[in-house]
C-alpha cells in the first residue's frame, strides 16, 4: 500500500512520514528528496534555475516515478504537490492520502525556527509576510487537501493517531 502525507509546508509531513514508515516497516520516500536526487539539484536550485512552473512538472514526474517504483511506502509530498495538474486525483487513485491540517500560527512558528533557505517560497520573508503567505496559500490549496481520505487536525498530530485512522479507513 502507498500512503501519502499532504498539507502545507511545515505541517510535519516529512517528520511524521519518517516515523510512520518506521512503525509500519515501509520504505520512507520524501518526494522533495527524491526529486532532488533525480535531478541532481536542490529544491532551491530547481526553483531558481527552472522557475516554479517547470518545478511543478518535474514534481509530477517524480510522483509518477515513485508510484511506479514502490509497492509499500509512506510518501511525504511537498506542500504544493497535490495542488497542480490532476495530482490529487492521481494520489487518491494510487493510495491513501492523509491531510495534516495544522493551524497556520503553529506552522509559522515552526518555520521561523527552521532554515528558510531550503523553502524558496519563504526565503527572505519576515514572520508577518510568511504568516500572510501561508493564509493566502492555504485558502487556495484547501480545496485539494480536503479531498484526502483521512484528515488529521493539529497542532500536535501523533503517529499513533495516524496509524489508528489508517487501520480504520
Ligand atoms: N509535531 C511537531 N511539533 C513541533 N515541531 C515539528 C513537528 N513536526 C515537525 N516539526 C518541525 O517543523 C519543521 C517542519 O517540519 P517538516 O516535517 O519538514 O514539515 P513539512 O515536510 O510538512 O514541510 C521542522 O523544523 C520540524 O522539526
Ligand atoms: O508548498 C510548496 O509549494 C512547497 C513545499 C516544499 O515542501 P514541504 O511542504 O515539505 O516544505 C517544497 O516542495 C517546495 O519548497 C514547495
Ligand atoms: Mg517536507
Q: List each distinct ligand once.
A: adenosine-5'-diphosphate, shikimate-3-phosphate, magnesium ion
Q: What name is given to the CATH topology?
A: Rossmann fold
Q: Biggest sheet, strands in spatial order?
A: 2-3-1-4-5
| Main sheet specs | 5 strands, parallel
SS strand fraction: 5-15%
Shape: globular
CATH architecture: 3-Layer(aba) Sandwich
What is the element string, with H for helices and E for strands? Answer: EHEHHEHEHHEH
CATH superfamily: P-loop containing nucleotide triphosphate hydrolases
Mean pLDDT, all residues:
98
Percent helix, as a range, is: 55-70%
Uncertain ranges: none
Q: What's the number of extended β-strand segments?
A: 5
Question: What is the radius of gyration?
Answer: 15 Å
What does this structure look like?
Helix content is about 55%, strand content about 15%. The protein has helices spanning about 15-25, 30-40, 45-70, 85-95, 105-110, 125-145, 160-169, and strands at about 1-5, 25-30, 75, 95-100, 150-155. The chain is α/β, with parallel strands linked by helices and about 170 residues long. The longest helix is centred in the first third of the chain and has 27 residues, at about 45-70. The chain starts with a strand and ends with a helix. Helix 2 (about 30-40) crosses helix 3 and helix 5 (about 105-110) crosses helix 6. Shikimate-3-phosphate (S3P) binds near residues 9, 13 and 43.
